[in-house]
Amino acid sequence: MTGGGADSDEIEEESNEESDPNEKSEDEAEEDEEEKEQSQSNANKGEKDAEFPEPMGSIKSSKMASTPKAPPKYVRERDREISEFKEIENKLGNFKALHDYVVELCKRLKERFTQYNMNGTENLWLLKPGSSSRGRGIKVYKTYEKVLNRIKLLKGNTRLWVVQKCIENPLIVENRKFDIRQWVLVTDWNPLTVWCYKESYVRFCVQEYDPKGDSRKNHLTNNSVQKKYADFADTEIDGNMWSSTEFADHLEEQYGDDRWTDKIWPQIK
């Protein structure tokens, strides 16, 4: 009966193992350990998420993945458009501030500079010999450097020079630049006594005025300069000159009032 007794003991031990409710199998123990690790991992991730929030456009997945997935294409495009819009918005903000500053600066300059409206955008200057006539030696320049270079070339010349800002927004007649030549007689220096002849004449350039041009033909109205050009005799204005009466008639026809008598002549005197 020894063998029977042994079988009985084995059966009893097996019966005892099955009947123990508190003892877990190895598989169950491993599953419990994995659940603990997973819980700890989720807790750590929650802390990191609180410290570093997810960037715009990321999508949360209900399933845990070993590596984060890239957001869909439409999300990436949306984020890129938002970023570009903000960049443009910042630039426009800076541009508006600069624009407002320039407008205010020009307004203040206009209040202090009476000839503000005569200036253009080409920075035109006339360099004139101090003791010359008939337009001789006059040069037109757009930069300060060129003016200085011209003077340096004439370093041995002891003559004085006049640097004059060119009126870039002049009154145009028959599409041409012009000036008024007025005769005066000075009879005394102290006190200064000047007699102004009532009649005068107007001199025109040969070619139509080009606000961007820097040629002598475009700016110097001297008759002795203009008559050297081939088209001098072909212009609609006879001799490229008007009397002050002709000029007054033209102004009245253009503006409907006597601008010469009411505005121009008082300024000449």
Describe the fold and architecture.
- By secondary structure, the protein is an alpha+beta fold.
- Among the domains are: 39 residues; 99 residues, no CATH class.
- Helix content is 46%, strand content 15%.
- A three-stranded antiparallel beta sheet has the order 2-1-3, with helices on one face. A three-stranded antiparallel beta sheet has the order 4-5-6.
- The N terminus is likely disordered.
Question: Could you provide a short overview of the structure?
Answer:
This protein is an alpha+beta fold.
Layout of secondary structure:
Blueprint: H1 2-18, H2 26-51, H3 73-112, E1 125-129, E2 139-141, H4 144-153, E3 161-165, E4 178-189, E5 192-204, H5 216-219, H6 223-226, E6 241-243, H7 244-255, H8 259-268
Antiparallel strand pairs: 1-2, 1-3, 4-5, 5-6
**pLDDT below 50 for ≥5 consecutive residues: which ranges?**
1-21, 48-52, 55-63
Overall shape: it is elongated
Distance N to C terminus:
154 Å
Q: How large, in whole angstroms, is the Cα Rg?
A: 47 Å
How many strands appear in the DSSP assignment?
6
- What can be said about the biggest beta sheet? 3 strands, antiparallel
Whole-number mean pLDDT: 76
* Number of discrete helical segments: 8
Record the strand order, biggest sheet. 2-1-3
Category by helix and strand content: alpha+beta
Helix proportion range: 40-55%
Strand and helix order: HHHEEHEEEHHEHH
- What portion of the residues fall into strands of 2 or more residues? 15-25%
Features:
single chain, 269 residues, alpha+beta, 3-stranded antiparallel beta sheet, 8 helices, disordered N terminus
